[in-house]
Amino acid sequence: MAEQLKEPTKLENDVMDALSEVLDPELGIDMVNLGLIYGVTVTDGACQITMTLTTMGCPIGDILNDAITKAAESVVGITSCKIDLVWEPVWDLSRMSRYAKVALGIHE
């Protein structure tokens, strides 16, 4: 039997909204539209963000980590934030929103 995906809570949606304000400084597009945020889970105020980076050796990883943590913790009701950086599934251009593709001049 297929596992059903859980509908995000209002708090999880609020965190995603906050993350949409975190821009990749090299590309000028936010982390959500770039498709780098794979999931947000909030349990008793503790937020866990599952995400990736465009490349494994991304030189701005620490900057993004700080900005993402700050954005998540700015949401009322979030008491802490843990980032789970993953490399599977691998990020590629198909994860980007239409907005991000247009903004970067990528035409498919």
UniProtKB/TrEMBL annotation:
Keywords carried by this UniProt record: Methyltransferase, Transferase
SUPFAM superfamilies the record matches: Fe-S cluster assembly (FSCA) domain-like
MF (Gene Ontology): methyltransferase activity
InterPro entries: Fe-S_Maturation_MIP18 (IPR052339), FSCA_dom_sf (IPR034904), MIP18-like (IPR002744)
Any one biological process term the GO annotation gives: methylation
Keyword Transferase: yes
Residue ranges of every copy of the MIP18 family-like domain listed in the record: 13-83
A family per Pfam: FeS_assembly_P
Protein name per Swiss-Prot or TrEMBL: DNA methyltransferase
Species of provenance: Secundilactobacillus collinoides (Lactobacillus collinoides)
